[in-house]
Amino acid sequence: MKFSQPSADLYAPGGKDPWAGLSSTTHLGIGAHADDLEILAFPGIAACFQHPKNRFSGIVVTDGAGAPRSGPFAQTSDVELIQLRRAEQRRAADLGHYASVIQLAHPSPAVRQSDRSAVIGDLVKIFEAAQPQTLYLHNPADRHETHIAVLLACIEALRQLPESSRPKEIYGCEVWGDLDWVPSSHVVRLPCPAPETLGTSLLDCFQSQIAGGKRYDRAALGRRYAQATFGNPNQPDSEQEIVLALDLRPLLDTNLS
Questions:
Q1: What does residue 247 show for φ and ψ, rounded to 5 degrees?
Q2: Class of 9-250 per CATH?
Q3: Helix H segments across 97-206?
Q4: Among candidates 31, 28, 34, 87, which has minimal Cα distance to 56?
């Protein structure tokens, strides 16, 4: 099976077959950029980490060439940054014991165009191969334009699947912007049952971003702690880390425009 971009990268830790890893997936995350998975899909990564049956796979849609850069990476070219971010995502897959990670390598401007048929076609292939039980996506209130474009492509790809092949749970999770403004009756609280250091260790893999001026490692952990503590003023904390999400299954209704 081939994807639309010749530079797409398929990887499974330990030299295993990426397609076999994908087909074993129970929890799947799809993010626009390298390091989005480790923020939005961290509940799935945590649920699968060292678990005897659960298996996490991640999909990165873009090549990451347009990321901001400063400090030691200020003079890094787009071509160099693409290679750096690809290697960083592979390291995160190793550390997080992912079943597989697929980097589709679409240029961000192409993903943001109205015609996303190439991205959608790639995603349909992935959904058909993986058939995960739980899916983590960007959420419709995210402030990043490329994140929204990737979400729209995911929804269109899911609509092309028969109902029996769709994930039972589909969550739109936090990256750019929190979801604590959503009424509690409409938000899903996703626990992150993993060792306390796992989340920051995963994001530490992405030094081109962290040393380049964006401390996602501290910010993502702080948000998960805050969501766990400030969710209910009348009860003790039930979880140490929480990611807030929206239930996206209603968006699969093809009667919606």
A1: -75, 115
A2: alpha beta
A3: 108-111, 117-130, 145-159, 198-204
A4: 28
Once rounded to an integer, what is the mean pLDDT over residues 32-49?
97
Structure tokens, 238 = 């039930």
- Mean pLDDT of all residues in 169-181: 97
Q: Which two tokens stand for residue 226?
A: 């805050």
pLDDT digits (tens, 9 = 90+) for 217-235: 999 999 999 999 998 888 8
State the Cα–Cα distance between residues 256 and 241, nearest whole angstrom.
34
pLDDT tens digits, 121-162:
999 999 999 999 999 999 999 999 999 999 999 999 999 999
Contact 111, 4 (CB under 8 A): no
- The angle subtended at Cα 113 by Cα 111 and Cα 119, nearest 5°, is 35
35: left (phi over 0), alpha (psi -120 to 50) or beta: left
CA distances from residue 218 to 74, 143, 201, 202 in whole angstroms, order as listed: 21, 19, 11, 12
Which pTM was predicted?
0.95
Spatial separation of the C-alpha atoms in residues 32 and 150, rounded to whole Å? 6
Encoded tokens for 237: 């904390």
